[in-house]
Give the backbone structure.
Amino acid sequence: LSWNKTIDKVEIRNAIMKSKYKLSNAFNGAGATWDNTGATRGTATLSGLSVSTSQNPNITIMGNTGDNYTFYMIPQVLTGNSVVAYVHFTDNTEITATLKGEWKAGTTRTLKLSETNSTWNYVLTPTDPNRAAYFDETTSQPYGVTSYRQAADGTKQAVAWKVVGYDADGDGTFSMAEKPAWLTSLSKTEGDGGTAADQGTATLKKADLIDFFKQRNDGLKHATVLGSSSAPYDLSLHDHNGNTTLRNTANSYLISAPGHYRIPLVYGNAIENGVTNDKSYISHAPTGNSKVLYNFKDHAGHNIDNPWIEKTNGGANASVDGAEVVWADAANLVSSLSIAHDGGDTFLDFEVKESDIQSGNAVVAVKKGSTIVWSWHLWFAPKDALDKIPVTNHQGVVYNFTKETLGWKPTQWTGTTYTSARTVKVKVEQTVANNGTKAYTVINIIQNPGGVKKGATTLYQFGRKDAFPGVASSALATNSHFTENAGDNMSIMNGILNPGKFYTYGSNWSSNYSYYNLWSADNTTTGFNDNFVVKTVYDPCPAGFKMPASNAFTGFTTTGQDGGATNVDGTRDWQTYQSNFGHNFWTNSSKTAAINFPASGYLHYSNGSLNGVGDSGCYWSAVPKYSSDGCYLFFNLSYVKTLNENYRTYGFAARPVSE
C-alpha cells in the first residue's frame, strides 16, 4: 500500500449476514451445520476509522490485539457468490476485490491488500530482534529477512535482498549516510533469500553513562550559599525555588544549598500564607464521631490552640531550650543547632556546610529540658524535587504529584546520555523488481536507555508526621537515634515525644491511634475516593503539598483496579525495572509522559525491619481503609495494586500532591 494514506472505511459486500445454524441431536455433537439456504446477504461495515498505511510492508495494520477491527462472519462459500472486499481512503481512493475460497467455522482469515498486481507474489518479511538491546550490550539479538516469490501454482523461488538505507531520525527518509554512530555494523547486509530467514546481528556501541549521583551532590555543594549566622535564611518565608513568600510552615523542609537556616517553632502547617491555619489542628467534621480527632494534640496530650509551640495552651511550652539531630542518613548534614528568639517568636537555627551537604535526610527536634516537644524532617535534594507532575487517575481527576518521592536519596545513579530508546530503521530491498517496483521492508534496531539507580526514601507510619530512614540502621550517621522496634507503645503523645521510635503492631494502635482524620482533618470515611484532603499538623509533606486522596493512584493500572494491566513505560522488563529502581507510570491515557515511583521497600509492622528495597514500592494515601488499616499503593515488577490496604503500623513511602 502507498505510504501516508489513511483508511477510513472497510466493507465486506454481498456477504451472508443472516442464516440458520442447525444444532446437533447427537450426544457427541456431530452433525451441527450452517444452512445458508435462503440466507440474507448484505454489507458489513467498519466506518469512522483512522488507520494509517505508513507502516512496514507485510505488517498487520488492522485486526491487532485491542483495536477491535475484526469482522465476525457467518461461515460461507465465497467463490462464485460475488462477495467483495472494499477499502476506502480519506483521499477518496479505494480498493475493491472479489473474494474467493471459503470462510470455514473456527478459522481466522487475514486479507492482504496491494495496489500492484503481478503474476508472482513477492514476499519480503522482516523479523526484528526479539527484544531491544540493553544500554550496555554490544551485540543485538538476531534479526531476520525472508525473501522469495511464489507463483500461482505454489512454486517458490528465492529473491536476493540487500540493505539500501538507514533512517535514524524517524523522518521516513533513508540513506546509507544516515547510519548512526552507535550502530557499528550489521553482520548481514545482503542475502540470497529463501523461505527460511537470513539472520544477522547488529554490533552496537556501548552507551556512554552520566554520573547523575555526582551531578546531584555537586549541584548541592556548588549552589549559592543562603543566609548567614547573623541573618539565617528562613525556610518558611520562601518557596522551594527560593521565591519570597508569606510564612508557610510544614513538618518537612527542602534544603538545596549550603547556608545558615531557620525554621519557626510552629506545629506542622499551622501557619499558611502568613496567617493561622486552625483547620489543620481543629476538625470541622460533624460532632459525635469517636473515630474523629476533633482537637489535635501536642506532646503533652493538650489541645493545640496556637500555631506557635511556645504559645499554645497559654504558654505552657515556653522556654524551649534545646535541639538535637534525631537521626541522619549521612554524616554532618546539620550542625550548630540553636534556639533563637526574634520579635516574640522562637526559631530553630542551624548550619549546613558546603563541605558536608549531600543528598540525604535528617530529623531534627526541639526540646524543653530533656523532653522533645516537636520535630521536623529536613530533606537535602535539588529544588526541582518539588516540581509538580500532573497525573490523571482512572476517574479522570488530576493530582499534581511532586517530581520526587518525599525523602528520595540516591545512593548510586548512573544513566545513559539518552532517556528514550534510540532506534534506527534499516531499509531492506529485494534486488528483483515486481512489475517495475522493488519490494522493501524495514528492520528496527533498538537500544534502550538505562543505567544503575539505587536509593532510598523516608518511610512513614500511617497518621504520623515522623520520617523514618529508608536505609539500614548501620548506614545512619554516628549518634543517630532510631529504634526499629520500640514495641507496642503507640499514642499521639508517644509519637511526638519519640520521633526516632518505630512503634510496632499491637493493641495500642487500635485503642490510641485509630482515628480516621489524622492526615485529613475533616475526614469521616474509609476506603477509596477522591474526597478533598484537608492537610493536618501531622501531615509529613512540605509546605504547599499534602498526602494524596486514596484514589490518586488508580491511573497506574488500565482498569483502575488492583491487579489490572500495569500502566507503565517499559518497566515490566526486569532489567529496566532495576535500572529505574521501580516503575515509570504513565501519567495519563495519552502516554506522553511518565512519573517514576521508586521501589523503596517498607519497614515491617512487627519489628521495624527494612524489607523489599529495589523490589517493591508502598505508598500511603491520606485515608484509612479501616480503623486498623490505611489505604495505599503497592507494586512490584509484576503487579500494581492501586486499591490496597494494610496495617497502619507499616512504614511506607509518601508521595505528596499539591494542595
